[in-house]
Amino acid sequence: MQSALFFFEVGSLSQNLSLFQTHFILFHALYRLNQLGHETQTFNIEIHVLSIQLNVISANSTTEPSCYLESDGLRDYYLDWNNFDKTDSADVASLLSQFWQKYNKNALYTPQLVEQAQAYFEFDTTPTMKELKAKYRHKSLEYHPDKGGTTERFSELLNHYKVMKNAITKL
């Protein structure tokens, strides 16, 4: 395993994959630290997208930290190193696209994402809807799980198709 310092060197946050890896390591460490606080019943860390807060548990407190009373999919995700190891650049692009689609529909269609989708479909310029649909049909025959493809590749195809379709309709 590589040293965590590698991910914090100058320039390590300039690529989406290394940014994801750095974020993953940070959140993995926070959740591990939170486990320690829970096990020792001395503190808990509230970990949210926009804030991280340390809560010290007093010696006479009888309540368990609330973060361990319920299922936490994010905690499970960040504590599983397989998620770090198996995530590649395409996965990160898909995760980012899904994130922006969920939290800010307009940001899904940033120039960078449109450029990536255009390259994915091998267009030099913005295509017509007819050209996009033809490329989409061709790739869907190859990537669809029922045709021998995988769910991941087909999901990536759908994400790129949505980005291009929106870019074309906004012209």
Which helices and strands appear, and what pairs or packs with what?
Layout: H1 16-40, E1 43-47, E2 52-56, H2 73-79, H3 81-86, H4 89-103, H5 111-120, H6 129-143, H7 151-169
Antiparallel strand pairs: 1-2
Helix pairs in contact: 4-7, 5-7, 6-7
In a nutshell, what does this entry contain?
The chain has 171 residues and is mostly helical. It has seven helices and two strands.
Structural class: mainly alpha
Helix content class: 55-70%
Number of domains: 2
What's the number of helices?
Answer: 7
Walk across the major sheet and give the strand order.
Answer: 1-2
Keywords: Chaperone
Protein name: DNA-J related domain-containing protein
InterPro entries: DnaJ-related_N, DnaJ_domain, J_dom_sf
Domain J: 116-171
Notable characteristics:
2 domains; mainly alpha; 171 residues; single chain; Helix Hairpins; 2 strands; elongated; 7 helices
Description:
It is a single chain. By secondary structure, this protein is mainly alpha-helical. The chain folds into 2 domains: 4-86, no CATH class; 89-169, Orthogonal Bundle (Helix Hairpins), CATH 1.10.287. It is built from 7 helices and 2 strands; from the N terminus they run αββαααααα. The protein has helices spanning 16-40, 73-79, 81-86, 89-103, 111-120, 129-143, 151-169; strands at residues 43-47, 52-56. Strands 1-2 form a two-stranded antiparallel sheet. Strand 1 and strand 2 (52-56) form a beta hairpin. Helix 4 (89-103) crosses helix 7 (151-169) and helix 6 (129-143) runs antiparallel to helix 7 (151-169). The longest helix has 25 residues, at 16-40. It is elongated, with a radius of gyration of 21 Å. The mean pLDDT is 82. It comes from Psychrosphaera algicola. It holds the Pfam family DnaJ. InterPro entries: DnaJ-related_N (IPR021059), DnaJ_domain (IPR001623), J_dom_sf (IPR036869).
